[in-house]
Design brief:
- With 335 residues, the protein is an alpha/beta fold.
- The protein has three domains: 7-50 and 193-268, HAD superfamily/HAD-like (Rossmann fold), CATH 3.40.50; 79-189, Rossmann fold; 274-332, GMP Synthetase, Chain A, domain 3.
- Helix content is 33%, strand content 21%.
- It contains eleven helices and 19 strands.
- It has helices at residues 31-40, 56-65, 78-89, 102-110, 136-147, 171-182, 196-205, 217-227, 241-245, 299-310, 324-332, and strands at residues 12-15, 22-23, 26-27, 44-49, 75-77, 95-99, 114-116, 125-128, 151-154, 160-161, 168-169, 188-189, 210-214, 230-234, 255-257, 278-279, 282-287, 290-295, 319-321.
- Strands 5-4-1-13-14-15 form a six-stranded parallel beta sheet, sandwiched between helices.
- It starts with 11 loop residues before the first strand and ends with a helix.
- InterPro entries: GNAT-like, HAD-like_sf, HAD-SF_hydro_IIA, HAD_sf.
- It comes from Paractinoplanes brasiliensis.
- Residues 280-335 form the GCN5-related N-acetyltransferase-like domain.
- This is HAD superfamily hydrolase (TIGR01450 family).
Length: 335
C-alpha cells in the first residue's frame, strides 16, 4: 500500500454498485478506469450491493460487460446473505415464501430451502427483496403468511433506486406496503446499513484496513460507521450535498468526492469535515447559529467547509451565500 493518495491507505475497497459504479445498466463515467487502477496496484476490490434482483455471477457478468472486470467471488449480494441467514435458522428443505426476483428464489434454493408462492404451501418464513415484477398478489400472500407466524426477513430497506431518469421505488417502498398492512416491521433486515456485507468482504479478502465507497448515507455510509470502517461518499447517486450537510453522526462519511476519481487524490483533499474556514477560493464565516459562504471554486471544497459548520450545530437552512458563485451553488443544492 502507498499513502500517496486516498486509496493507497487501504488494502480493500468495497464498492456499492447502483449510483457508484453504474446506473441501471450503464457505467458511471470514470468507474471502469478507477477499478482498473486499483487492480493494477493489487488493491483488493469487492462489491457489496443491496439489490437482490441479481445473483453474484450475474452481477460479475454485468460488470465485466461494462468494462469493469469482476469475479463472482468479489460480489456480495443481499439476496445471498438473506438466503444464508435463513439456512442457518431453518431446517433443510423448509418452505420459504419468496417476494422478489428469480435471483432471490435461486439463492433460497441453493441454500437448501424450498421457495413457495402461497400461504397454502405453509411457509415458515417470508423473504422479501427487490423485484421489478413484484405485485399485489404475492404481497398479499406474504402478508397472510407473516400474520400466520412466518418469520419475515428482508434483504434491504432502500426506499429508492437511482436511475438516469431519477430515483425509482426500491425494496424499502415495497417493504412499506407490508409494514402498513401488518402494522409492524420485518423481523430481520440483512443488507446495508447492517454491517454484515462489509465485514464478510473484509474477512474474505483478509483485509485489515478496508474502505467502503457508496452513494447513500442511510445504507452504505451508515453501514460503514456501524462496521467501524472508513467510508467515501461519492456524489454520483442518491445522497447529495444537502443530505450530507444535515447528516446525523451515525451517517457521516470519512471522505467525500464528486466521483471515483477522488480515490486517486490526496486523502486530505477529501477528508471531512474541513475546519480551516477558508480553502480553495472559498471562505465560511459563522455568526452564532448561521453561516455564510463566500468566494468561488470547487463545489466539493465548499461542501467540506460547510460540513464543519452544520455538523457543529448550524442548520443547513441557516447557510447563506455572500457571492454570486456561493448563492448559485447553494441554490443548486436546494438550500
Amino acid at each position: 500500500m502507498s499513502g500517496d493518495d486516498l486509496a493507497g491507505g487501504y488494502d480493500l475497497v468495497v464498492f456499492d454498485l447502483d449510483g457508484v459504479v453504474f446506473l441501471i445498466d450503464k457505467p458511471i463515467a470514470g468507474a471502469p478506469e478507477a477499478v482498473e487502477r486499483l487492480h493494477e496496484r493489487n488493491t483488493a476490490v469487492a462489491y457489496a450491493t443491496n439489490n437482490a434482483s441479481r445473483r453474484a455471477a450475474e452481477v460479475a457478468e454485468l460488470l465485466t460487460g461494462m468494462g469493469v472486470p469482476a469475479r463472482p467471488a468479489e460480489v456480495l449480494t443481499s439476496a445471498g446473505a438473506a438466503a444464508a441467514v435463513l439456512a442457518d435458522k431453518l431446517p433443510a428443505g423448509s418452505p420459504v415464501l419468496v417476494v422478489g426476483a428469480d435471483a432471490l428464489r435461486a439463492e433460497v434454493t441453493e441454500a437448501g430451502l424450498t421457495p413457495v408462492e402461497s400461504l397454502d404451501d405453509e411457509p415458515v418464513a417470508v423473504v422479501q427483496g427487490y423485484g421489478p415484477e413484484v405485485g399485489w398478489r404475492v404481497l398479499a400472500e406474504a402478508s397472510l403468511a407473516v400474520r400466520a407466524g412466518a418469520l419475515w426477513v428482508v434483504t434491504n430497506t432502500d426506499r429508492t433506486l437511482p436511475s438516469p431518469r431519477g430515483p425509482l421505488p426500491g425494496n424499502g417502498s415495497l417493504v412499506a406496503v407490508l409494514r402498513t398492512a401488518l402494522d409492524r416491521g420485518p423481523d430481520l433486515v440483512v443488507g446495508k446499513p447492517e454491517p454484515a456485507l462489509f465485514t464478510t468482504a473484509a474477512a474474505l479478502s483478509h483485509a485489515e484496513r478496508p474502505l467502503v465507497v457508496g452513494d447513500r448515507l442511510d445504507t452504505d455510509i451508515q453501514g460503514a460507521v456501524t462496521a467501524g470502517v472508513d467510508s467515501l461518499l461519492v456524489l454520483t447517486g442518491v445522497s447529495g450535498p444537502a443530505d450530507l450537510l444535515s447528516a446525523e453522526p451515525g451517517r457521516r462519511p470519512t471522505f467525500v468526492a464528486a466521483d471515483l476519481s477522488g480515490l486517486f487524490r490526496p486523502a486530505e483533499d477529501a477528508a471531512l469535515p474541513l475546519r480551516a474556514g477558508e480553502a480553495g477560493g472559498w471562505r465560511v464565516s459563522r455568526d452564532g447559529g448561521s453561516a455564510t459562504l463566500d468566494g468561488s471554486g470547487d463545489p466539493v471544497v465548499a461542501l467540506r467547509l460547510l460540513c464543519a459548520a452544520t455538523w457543529d450545530g448550524v442548520a443547513p437552512a441557516a447557510v447563506s451565500g455572500a457571492s454570486d458563485a456561493a448563492r448559485e451553488l447553494l441554490s443548486s443544492w436546494g438550500l
